[in-house]
Design brief:
This protein folds into three domains: 332 residues, Thrombin, subunit H; 63 residues; 279 residues, no CATH class. The chain has 26 helices and 22 strands. Strands 1, 2, 3, 4, 5, 6, 7, 8, 9, 10 and 11 form an eleven-stranded antiparallel β-sheet that branches. Helix 16 packs antiparallel against helix 20.
């Protein structure tokens, strides 16, 4: 047998032995981590955190909407999450006359709480390892057949456990399909807005401070979950009553100090810790830079528009928040990956994996070809994957092109003319959407949307398409326009989608024969040709590459886990309930600079700038500060804490997650990561990676002292 080098052992420690604060652990298997958690300061048991047999902390934690976390803080279904998680619902209830986004909203009683159409809250009942059932019959079959068998098995297992119940079951793969877990849930559909601070508190610092430390953002909002008389999920009804959870979190006002044990309980979205060096190279040098460049242009247009009027600021607030979040995160990610020399570290590990695989004929047979195959797949699919990125970030950046995509689908349906009722319904929905847009200051929006379209599509052409799609080069040449910007501007101006009268003529009372006029529209033609060209040239490549990489990573990860049978590996995040634990910790972002682990209201006043919207401070907050009227929410020094940092491993989806102390009491609401640690989705760095949380004392201070909504605090269980 070939001797494995010492460097291999060192790299194993470096690459895949989780650091003390690294990891997103499955609550069902938390017993394996209990000793380490208690060693680090935890005073409760794993059973207190997750139990399928009695009430536990998991009964107080929910998936909020489709990508955030929330937590119950009262026996009456009162729920806390982030302000940015509730943002779109706050906006939906806001008007210029009743601007809850700017001024805040606080329901005086339950009858004043506002229903949030489309918002769901998902509560885990129990989870179960169903690997054996899902993988039954997949031995010695092709990859395509394997996928069919797994899909069938998942459907059967999920149907069996939910039959005759109001439960819903989700089965997800872990470790790239080496393991499967089932999550049996209750999904609540009657969720109401209870309270939200003004944006100058809930989004203080705005996009400037996003991902940065120190933070001074009161990033929270308050909702309530309603159920039927049997305490079960139900559609919205005035007859519904507040949901009574099996468990709600106690709130500890003692606060935090350096070194305190903390853990985050929530629904992290996506991590990619097993990526190979080729994948890292693509993220670092192609994927993230392309997205950053395009979103820089979009944000520049939006921000100039928002400075024009309060109406425009309100109109684009949600879009800007969404666009800016990824834009800034990717910048930090690229910086972090380069600083850690991630690509080269991955290469070193892969070299040692290859050496390990070659040390026996059996390993060579199983794992010897996996890394070369992954390298080949990434190389062959790179341009196709870039095409996908540019379509998502550029083509659909403007409202006009999004609508062009919708009406092109309508035209295709019309050609078939098989279901006129469906065709009419589609046409009516598109017409309603466009009409609503026309009625909302469309003259100004048209200018904004046109500029976004021209600028993003010009980047798409210059940076990618002109070297990838000959037909588009030819179209530009035939147009006789002096610049590509002029070409795209002419497409926008000529489209019926930007003309209210033509939209009404074609779509109101829609007739299937109108598809010919739709198809001849310049914007529709451009959109259709781009999509068609992508599907013909790139779509199959991406689909095949994704299928190949999924299959290859399954083998690769299985090999990694075989190399180290002692280590406990945590699975990549996939929007399922996880526990991450660590400690309150300061850090050094650069030479000569140390960030302490908490911030106070003092920093809000230091940042105040009336000329910059993100740094305007509410008059009442300044008064409370001036009088030092912090009530029972001040710390032992008399300061008003705002936020704190800890070494818990978090990612997107953890927004709104409860941050708990050693006793399992609520001490904060997770809302961000630090910019220096955004590469933690791919590679964790214990010296730099920190999660940022709202101090629960500031949350309650705003509710009680600022908003005068003490009745909400009175619902909660306070310990000190």
């Amino acid at each position: 047998m070939k001797k494995v080098s010492v460097s291999f052992a060192l790299m194993m420690l470096l690459m895949f032995n989780a650091f003390a604060d690294e990891g997103m652990w499955l609550p069902l298997l938390l017993g394996n981590k209990q000793a380490d958690m208690q060693k680090n300061g935890m005073k409760i048991s794993a059973e207190d955190i997750y139990s399928a047999n009695h009430s536990s902390l998991k009964d107080a934690v929910v998936l909020f909407g489709r990508g955030c976390t929330g937590e119950f803080v009262s026996s009456q279904g009162l729920l806390l999450t982030n302000h940015h998680c509730g943002y779109s619902f706050i906006v939906s209830h806001s008007t210029v006359e009743a601007d809850y986004l700017t001024n805040g909203f606080w329901a005086e009683n339950k009858s004043a709480e506002l229903p949030c159409k489309g918002l769901t809250v998902t509560l885990l009942v129990y989870m179960q390892d169903v690997t054996a059932e899902v993988l039954k019959g997949v031995e010695n079959v092709s990859q395509a057949e394997r996928e069919k068998i797994i899909e069938r098995n998942i459907g059967e297992v999920a149907a069996k456990v939910t039959e005759g119940t109001h439960y819903e079951a989700v089965i997800k793969p872990f470790y790239y399909g080496n393991q499967y877990f089932m999550y049996v849930n209750e999904v609540f559909r009657d969720v109401r807005l209870v309270g939200a601070p003004p944006s100058n508190i809930g989004k203080f610092g705005g996009d400037t401070d996003n991902w940065m430390w120190p933070r001074h953002t009161g990033d929270f909002s308050v909702f309530r979950v309603y159920a039927n008389k049997n305490n079960e999920p139900a559609d919205y009804s005035p007859e519904n009553v507040p949901y009574v959870p099996k468990k709600h979190l106690k709130i500890n006002l003692n606060g935090v100090k350096e070194g305190d044990f903390t853990f985050v309980f929530g629904y992290p979205g996506t991590t990619r810790q097993f990526l190979t060096s080729d994948a890292v190279d693509f993220v670092q040098n192609y994927d993230d830079p392309a997205r950053i460049k395009l979103r820089t242009e979009i944000l520049d247009v939006y921000n100039r528009a928002m400075n024009n009027s309060a109406a425009q600021r309100l109109r684009y607030a949600s879009e800007v928040a969404s666009v800016a979040n990824g834009w800034k995160k990717w910048q930090g990610e690229v910086r972090g990956l380069k600083r850690l020399d991630t690509k080269n570290k991955k290469i070193e590990f892969e070299n040692n994996f290859t050496e390990w695989a070659a040390s026996s004929s059996e390993r060579t047979k199983l794992y010897g070809g996996v890394l070369p195959a992954l390298k080949k797949t990434y190389a062959e699919s790179q341009q196709a994957r870039l095409a996908y990125i540019y379509i998502n970030e550029a083509l659909l950046a403007s409202d006009m092109m999004y609508q062009a995509l919708q009406v092109s689908k309508l035209a295709n349906l019309s050609k078939e003319a098989k279901d006129m009722e469906k065709i009419s319904a589609v046409a009516e929905n598109i017409y309603k959407s466009l009409k609503a847009g026309f009625e909302n200051d469309y003259a100004n929006h048209r200018l904004v949307d046109k500029e976004i379209f021209v600028r993003t599509m010009s980047i798409y052409y210059n940076d990618f398409a002109k070297n990838h799609y000959d037909w588009l080069v030819q179209e530009f040449s035939k147009s006789k326009k002096q610049s590509i910007e002029d070409y795209f501007a002419s497409v926008y101006e000529a489209s019926f989608l930007t003309n209210p009268k033509q939209v009404e003529k074609l779509l109101a009372g829609y007739k299937s024969k109108n598809y010919k006029k739709i198809e001849s529209d310049p914007a529709v033609m451009l959109c259709s040709r781009i999509i068609t060209a992508f599907n013909e040239k790139d779509g199959a490549i991406i689909n095949n590459a994704n299928a190949a990489t999924d299959s290859l990573y399954r083998v690769y990860v299985a090999g990694i886990m075989q190399m180290d049978t002692i280590k406990e590996f945590y699975p990549d995040a996939n929007l399922t309930l996880r526990v991450a634990y660590g400690n309150v910790k300061s850090y050094e972002p650069k030479d000569g600079v140390v960030y302490k682990p908490y911030s106070t209201i003092e920093g809000i006043m230091q940042k105040e700038n009336p000329d910059i919207y993100d740094y305007k401070v509410e008059k009442k907050l300044k008064q409370l500060y001036s009088e030092k009227d912090y009530g029972r929410y001040a710390n032992e020094k008399g300061e008003m804490p705002v936020a704190f940092i800890a070494s818990n491993h978090t990612t997107g989806g953890n927004s709104g997650s409860p941050v708990l102390d050693a006793n399992g009491d609520l001490i904060g609401i997770n809302f961000d990561r630090n910019w220096e640690g955004t590469m933690s989705d791919i590679m964790y760095d214990p010296s730099q990676c920190r999660n940022i949380s709202l101090d629960i004392r500031y949350c309650l201070f705003i509710i009680d002292k600022f908003a005068g909504a003490k009745h909400l605090v009175d619902e909660m269980t306070i310990v000190k």
